[in-house]
Specification:
Elements: E1 7-17, E2 23-33, E3 37-41, H1 48-55, E4 63-68, E5 71-72, H2 78-85, E6 88-91, H3 103-113, H4 118-131, H5 147-159, E7 165-169, H6 179-192, E8 196-200, H7 204-209, E9 214-218, E10 221-225
Parallel strand pairs: 3-8, 3-9, 6-7, 7-8
Antiparallel strand pairs: 1-2, 1-4, 4-5, 9-10
Helix pairs in contact: 3-4, 3-5
């Protein structure tokens, strides 16, 4: 069972740099509440990918304090970090699929790692691939599919085990205007079930069509921006 914590991620005065270079992000303060939904925005090079990489525990901060699911990651060993990562779903911009596997087997992978019964896996994966309109490609090797189809497989794989935290980097960037709203609906429904969602995007249409607060990166700093029609009291957790 998940811990009874209100904040999925806490960052206090967090900075990150690569090697001896200058800081990419500085003095980041963030309290990401359980069950919240945010867009992550900023110009190219603003540090969105770096912030996401800290959130899914691929990078540790260079300084400051950060906790994920209530665990201070500066004092969490490799096994502990691996355990935390299993509670996070990630949609990478470059997909990171196993091209020699079928669409079905790519999506089923997180469930098989968890030891789920194969009959339940077949049911869940088939339903989800049908939802993202890939039921006709279940047995196709991902190497043979288009970029938009691979994007949908990557999204399905990230959400199949209903993660507590979902991080998505430009998840609608390779799909058409018909599929994009359907994928967003999937994220919204997952959020209603309790998953905390952060979506990095450059799409103004997406931001305008779905009224959620933005985590906006500018000048190495993070700012929270609320839409005019968003109610902090009635619009969800922040």
């Amino acid at each position: 069972m998940p811990e009874n914590i209100s904040n999925i991620i806490e960052m206090q005065n967090v900075g990150i740099r690569y090697g001896q270079g200058p800081e990419v992000l500085s003095d980041i303060r963030l309290s990401l509440k359980r069950g919240s939904f945010h867009f992550l925005t900023g110009k190219s090079g603003a540090g969105k990918t770096s912030l996401l990489s800290m959130m899914y525990l691929a990078q540790r901060p260079s300084r400051g304090r950060m906790s994920v699911f209530g665990k201070d990651i500066n004092f969490t060993n490799r096994d502990g970090l691996s355990s935390l990562r299993r509670r996070i779903g990630v949609v990478f911009q470059d997909f990171r699929l196993l091209d020699h596997l079928s669409a079905f087997d790519n999506v089923a992978l997180p469930l098989r790692v968890c030891g789920m019964d194969e009959r339940e896996i077949r049911k869940r994966v088939s339903e989800l691939l049908s939802w993202v309109e890939l039921d006709n490609h279940m047995l196709d090797a991902t190497a043979t599919l288009s970029g938009g189809e691979k994007q949908r497989i990557a999204i399905a794989r990230a959400v199949i085990n209903r993660p507590e935290l979902l991080l998505a980097d430009e998840p609608t960037g390779n799909v058409d205007n018909f599929i994009a709203p359907k994928l967003m609906k999937l994220f919204v429904e997952l959020n209603k079930l309790g998953t905390t969602v952060v979506i990095a995007t450059h799409s103004e249409k997406l931001i305008n069509d779905f009224v959620y607060p933005r985590l906006h990166l500018q000048n190495k700093e993070l700012h929270v921006i609320y839409p005019d029609s968003y109610s902090i009291l009635g619009g969800g957790n922040v």
